Amino acid sequence: MNDMLQAPAIEPLPSAPLLERFLFEQPLIPVVVLAILAIVAAIAFASRGQRRRGLLIAVVLAAVAAGVYTAASVVTTERERMLERTAALIAATATVDTASLNRLLTEDASLRASGDIERALGSIEGLAEIMDQAEYRLQGRYRITDWEIHDRQATLDGPNVGRTLVRVGVDVESFGRTHYSWWRLHWERTPDGQWRCFEIEPRWIQFVGSAR
Predict the structure, then answer these.
(1) Residues paired with residue 155 on neighbouring β-strands, in sequence order
(2) Of 128, 97, 95, 126, residue with least CA distance to 112
(3) Taking a C-beta distance cutoff of 8 angstroms, is the pair 171, 193 a contact?
(4) Is 1 a residue whose pLDDT tops 60?
(5) Is 167 within 8 Å of 180 (Cβ atoms)?
(6) How far is CA 172 from CA 58, 61, 94, 207, 209, in A?
(7) Is the Cβ–Cβ distance between 162 and 175 less than 8 Å?
(8) Helices 28-47 and 51-74 sit at what angle, rounded to 10 degrees?
(9) Of 82, 89, 49, whose CA–CA distance to 153 is shortest?
(10) Does residue 2 surpass a pLDDT of 70?
(11) For labeling, which of 88, 153, 170, 209 is most exposed (least CB within 10 Å)?
């Protein structure tokens, strides 16, 4: 019963390599460190009577910080692209946007449930059946009025395959509170360069329970 109300520990996805994560996905940490080093260098050399050298080092460090921030703004990693597609897939599902679902899912996409979730919802095979079930379940009693992604992770398992893990909160028309769930999505990069989801795994759904 506790699993039905509160999510158990969900196994996280492997982290991105540190260098790529800090250079392109989370640049604020190295930018702040470099800015602090620039200030420290300027003060330290000034106290030794070498103000000019300190200013030169500070300028170089500030330029590196600016370069890191610019690179992160320009470069979109494949993990970030998968997370963008994940957000688009959640929005398309919540609004039953079948045109978008058609672009975001592969033809043989499946929803693979297990444990408590399989007993409650079953599994769904194929894009057409997924869209039929979305229309059947989410355009009536369980129509979603608002949604938000609260946690999100992504990992690459190979050059053209990866996974995302998200915790989603939704407001359903017939419920009086936000309803939470965890989902693991499997992605492949198709020949047109787009990431498409080929397998959806519900890991935990509030009031339903957990996967195996």
Answers:
(1) 163
(2) 126
(3) no
(4) no
(5) yes
(6) 54, 50, 10, 13, 18
(7) no
(8) 170
(9) 82
(10) no
(11) 88
